[in-house]
Design a protein that fits this description.
By secondary structure, this protein is mostly helical. 45% of the residues lie in helices and 7% in strands. It has a two-stranded antiparallel sheet. It has a two-stranded antiparallel sheet with strand order 3-4.
Amino acid sequence: MIVSQKGDFKFKERSRRPPLDKVNCLLSFLYTLLMHDARSALECVGLDSCVGFLHRDRPGRPGLALDMMEEFRPFLADRLALTLINREQVRISGFTVSETGAVLMDEETRKAVLVAYQKRKQEEIMHPYLKENVQVGILFYIQALLLARYLRGDLDGYPVFIWR
């Protein structure tokens, strides 16, 4: 799926803590942004972001936020990472390798990713369950609200966000 800068951005497998290549560094940063947005949305609707269903409970780990962000990984983070690489909005020069082998983004690259992420959140899509146009950035809150309604017995099932 990487059609531009193939030689500079190679992806073989997922590596994290630390990311060992540029694509993993980009994905880790985007997943962190997703997690914070999901956590904030869950807490806004009164849910404990640390009590998850799919991710095991650990002290300080936002299990429910990690569960909820699974819906948004391919739609928002993975797709944005590929777009940034293929449109050459991020370049190899924006990444450095530390002595430990960890790949880090420089300030300019981080800023470019943040700007692209915020622009993506301003785009509108048709929500598959609500059948209304909504901004991508409010999807976290909508899904958290739907989850809260399901858990409280107001909905028969949780309508998972699946974008086709």
